[in-house]
Write a structure and sequence with these properties.
The complex is a heterodimer of chains A (683) and B (167).
Chain A (H helix, E strand, L loop, with lengths): L1 H28 L3 H30 L6 H6 L6 H6 L5 H21 L9 H22 L5 E5 L2 E5 L7 E2 L15 H16 L1 H13 L5 H32 L9 H26 L3 H23 L6 H6 L2 H22 L1 H4 L11 H33 L7 H21 L10 H24 L5 H32 L3 H11 L1 H26 L1 E7 L4 E4 L2 E12 L4 E12 L2 E6 L2 E5 L4 E5 L1 E4 L3 E10 L7 E9 L2 H18 L22
Helix pairs in contact in A: 1-2, 1-6, 2-5, 2-6, 5-6, 5-7, 6-8, 7-9, 8-9, 8-11, 9-10, 9-21, 10-11, 10-15, 11-13, 15-16, 16-18, 17-18, 18-19, 18-20, 19-20, 20-21
Chain B lengths: L1 H22 L12 H8 L18 H15 L4 H12 L14 H25 L4 H13 L2 H16 L1
The chains are: A alpha+beta (683), B mainly alpha (167).
């Protein structure tokens, strides 16, 4: 019954979306506002309808309805309630419905906005958003129905929503349970964040397409969607960071990012979105490069769909499994169609979008932003090519190849370095013009301070030139950002006779974008410090030692004290080792690396014991052990210098985005933008 | 279908391992037993063909453990890192390597990103030349003004002007 209600609502949502598309186009073409309003109501309705679907699926998960195939795949009786809820997005068909539900949320929110001044956009925003929603709903209704039931037919178990002729209902006693790797707080929040980021980018794209169709190609669409874009970016960033943290905590390989195709598929829209966020500033400030912004938002949207396609179609494991999966070819068609239509519209409006681009110097703010866009695009092309090359190779030569971290690290390392350098120079340059002469006056102090970072690296015994250069870059960018903050605060403090903190607070409140951006960039620099630390100086060792035996790594000595195995009442068998950690002969900590074996899914998870400080992380994994023998246990130990800064930086970064995206206190009417000659970083 | 293929792969590999372990010279016959670190150093650069995109040193599957055993055996027989990697390539194909070997079609993976990037740089350079204003006098004047003015005052009024503009 509940499954029928859920599926019914899903089906009605699809019909409503298709109706909305038709009504919006008809209303716009025949100039009948009532039809457009009707389409708007249809779009507003999508969220309540899909909320019924999601609620029904949640109910089935929470009440152990294992006759529903999806429930049995991702849930089991022994799972706690919160995990049963997260099982909603723990498998294919659930994730697709969840994706649609979030998109519907944004779609409904868009209809609530004030449209009086931008009515010409409305029908096309509805069309683009609802076409995207309808595509995902078609996948759910016809191919990946989360409400499909299990049936017994001639001794075979078949999956179908409707009862096949002669079939009997089949109700398993228990489900297989969520993949244990997914039973982690990071994994619980990571997919929703990523999906929120993905779907939120649909809205700025819809506005961009509306601008292209209506020919209203001024900055209005950018102003209207600036906050959407920032929130989308925030969620996507959070999703990536949480995914990295999950990998570090659960996957047990001592790292946070493995350049895995699934990771890259979420990283690519982020890269394009980040380039877009930066390049729109040139249009807002100087009215230039409108075509570039269109290209970037179209790219971001299609990479969002491409990312979902990569992870959902099975194409990554083999091009052949892609062909066999029902949804793979559909995704392919949808991506090709949206890309072709978007680019067609763009070419059609190319001349309308052309502006008198004028760059006076290579060091002006807009020129430096263009350089950064180029670098982001360089990383994007490398990532894209690295992900699809194995598929091309398999198609062309029949030979599968692996494109792993060494390829990406070598190819993108210098580009990331370039971005870090630009991050340091950009805040000092002005819009319009900036030359070496004007820049020199500002750059010398942060430059001198940054030399201290390089000197510290040298004094610390570091001899790799790449690492020294990287530390210098971090020092330089950090000094520039702090220098900017202090300079602003002092200048304002002098004028209003305030102390530095009051004046900083005052600045922050009056220009969230600029200071949000400074905080974001400070976060990036801290993250860079963490990445450099772990990438350049990670060491590891592995050994099998008896109880009381020792291992050494960096300046630490680890002693294997004991190991116990026990069953828990949530269906796990846990093997937990006790390892004491000493530094320079002094006992400083005790760590508990463990391995959890989950009975329901017959899978195991390795949870490392981690001692984390601002200087380094000691990360111990229990690889193996021999019960009741003298052989002892096998441990793998990683020494990860500075990696904590990656996590601290991530939170600073997120804080910065929240500052920049937070609604300003005074509700201001958006003015028609006028190019302002000079200004702040994101202002 | 995929699962079936996967199990086939596993079975074939386990059989190969068994044959190998039977034919292998007893460990330590030609040298001391290699340490886990020595094994991992090689395993890190190899990828399991069964589990997608997981380096062999971190893969927890039994078959990968046997692979590491093969590395250990080969090391104790005196094989070098390159010989062991070549052996795995001959057994399971190029996909066991972290990067495609630099030959033939594979060159594309290395060539395309830099070429695209260089084209991007060139386009930007061309753009800069055409976007650069002819009006250099104005620039010079502005620079001169910036030189002469009180930098601090100028900066402050810039911030203030901008803040005013936002209200």
């Amino acid at each position: 019954m509940i499954a029928n209600i859920g599926f019914g609502a899903l089906f009605i949502a699809l019909i409503t979306a298709l109706y909305g598309v038709a009504a919006a186009i008809y209303g716009e073409r025949s100039r009948k506002a009532a039809w457009v309003d009707s389409a708007r109501q249809a779009m507003a309705l999508s969220f309540p309808l899909l909320t019924i679907t999601v609620a029904a699926l949640l109910y089935l998960l929470l009440t152990n309805h294992y006759e529903i195939a999806y429930v049995g795949e991702v849930s089991s009786r022994s799972m706690p309630v919160y995990l049963k809820m997260t099982a909603l997005w723990g498998g294919q068909s659930g994730s697709l419905v969840f994706w649609s539900w979030l998109l519907a949320g944004f779609a409904s929110a868009v209809t609530l906005g004030k449209w009086d001044r931008d009515r010409e956009f409305l029908p096309w925003v509805i069309v683009v958003t609802l076409v995207t929603l309808a595509f995902f709903l078609i996948l759910s209704v016809f191919f990946e129905n989360p409400f499909a039931r299990l049936w017994q037919l001639d001794r075979e178990i078949v999956t179908s929503f409707f009862r096949p002729v002669g079939a009997l209902p089949f109700v398993p006693r228990d489900g297989r349970g969520l993949n244990p790797l997914l039973r982690h707080p990071g994994m619980i929040i990571h997919p929703p964040m990523l999906y929120l980021g993905f779907v939120a980018f649909v809205i700025p794209y819809a506005f961009a397409i509306a601008a292209l169709i209506t020919g209203r190609t001024d900055d209005r669409w950018i102003q209207l969607t600036r906050r959407w874009t920032l929130w989308a970016w925030l969620f996507l960033s959070l999703g990536l960071v949480l995914g990295a943290r999950w990998a570090y905590d659960v996957l047990g390989w001592g790292g946070y990012w493995g350049w895995d195709p699934v990771e890259i598929s979420a990283f690519m829209p982020w890269l394009a979105g980040t380039a877009f966020l930066h390049s729109v500033m040139i249009q807002e400030k100087r009215g230039m490069f409108k075509q570039l912004n269109m290209v970037l938002i179209i790219l971001t949207f299609d990479l969002v769909i491409f990312g979902t396609f990569l992870t959902r179609s099975g194409v990554l494991s083999s091009v052949h499994s892609f062909a066999q999966s029902a949804i793979g070819p559909l995704f392919f068609v949808f991506i090709s169609a949206t890309l072709a239509v978007s680019l067609g519209l763009l070419i059609n409006r190319w001349n309308d979008l052309s502006s008198r681009n004028e760059l006076k110097t290579f060091l002006s703010r807009e020129a430096l932003i263009l350089f950064s866009v180029l670098l982001f695009m360089g990383i994007l092309v490398t990532s894209f090519w690295g992900v699809i090359f194995p598929l091309i190779s398999e198609l062309v030569t029949g030979q599968k190849v692996t494109v792993g971290p060494p390829f990406y690290e070598r190819a993108t390392g210098p580009l990331f370095g370039g971005l870090l350098l630009l991050l340091g120079i950009c805040p000092l340059s002005a819009w319009g013009y900036s030359s070496w002469k004007t820049l020199r006056k500002l750059v010398w102090l942060p430059f001198l301070i940054s030399l201290a970072a390089a000197a510290a690296a040298l004094a610390g015994g570091i001899r790799q030139w790449q690492a020294i250069l990287a530390f210098w870059l971090v020092g330089f960018s950090f000094s520039v950002l702090i220098y900017e903050l202090i300079r602003d605060a002092l200048a304002r403090g002098r004028r209003y006779e305030q102390n530095v903190f009051d004046s900083l607070w005052g600045l922050l409140k009056r220009n969230q974008r600029r200071y949000g951006a400074i905080v974001i960039h400070l976060g990036v620099v801290m993250m860079a410090l963490g990445v450099i630390g772990i990438e350049s100086f990670q060491t590891e060792t592995q050994a099998t030692i008896p109880e009381g035996g020792r291992m050494e790594l960096a300046s630490y000595t680890m002693t294997y004290q004991s190991l116990e195995t026990f069953n828990t009442n949530d269906g796990r068998n846990v093997a937990r080792a006790v390892v004491s950690v000493a530094k320079n002969g002094q006992l400083i900590d005790e760590l508990y690396p463990r391995r959890d074996f989950f009975f329901d899914s017959n899978q195991q998870v390795t949870i490392p014991g981690v001692r984390s400080t601002l200087v380094d992380d000691l990360y111990i994994i229990l690889i193996d052990w021999k019960a009741i023998s003298q052989e002892g246990a096998t441990f793998k130990v990683f020494h990860n210098p500075l990696v904590k800064w990656l996590w601290i930086g991530s939170w600073v970064f997120i804080l910065g985005v929240v500052i920049a995206a937070w609604p300003e206190r005074k509700s201001k009417k958006i003015r028609k933008s006028k190019p302002v000659p000079q200004g702040g970083m994101l202002s | 279908m995929r699962i079936q293929k996967y199990y086939q792969d596993v079975v074939v590999m386990v059989l190969v391992m068994m044959v190998l372990s039977l034919s292998a010279v007893p460990a330590g016959a030609q040298g001391s037993t290699p340490s886990d670190d020595q094994v991992n150093e090689i395993a890190r650069e190899l990828y399991c063909p069964v589990c997608e995109n997981i380096p062999l040193d971190t893969c927890g599957m039994e078959v990968c453990e046997q692979w590491r055993g093969v590395i250990r055996d080969k090391l104790s027989e005196g094989w070098t890192k390159e010989e062991i990697k070549a052996y795995f390539v001959s057994q399971y194909g190029d996909r066991v390597l972290g990067e495609p070997p630099r030959r033939g079609f594979n060159w594309l993976v290395y060539v395309v990103p830099p070429v695209v990037f260089v084209v991007g740089v060139y386009l930007l350079y061309k753009g800069f030349r055409s976007w650069k204003s002819q009006d250099d006098d104005r620039l010079l004047e502005a620079e001169r003004a910036a030189d002469q003015g009180n930098a601090d005052e100028e900066y402050l009024s810039r911030v203030e002007e901008e803040l005013r503009g936002r209200e």
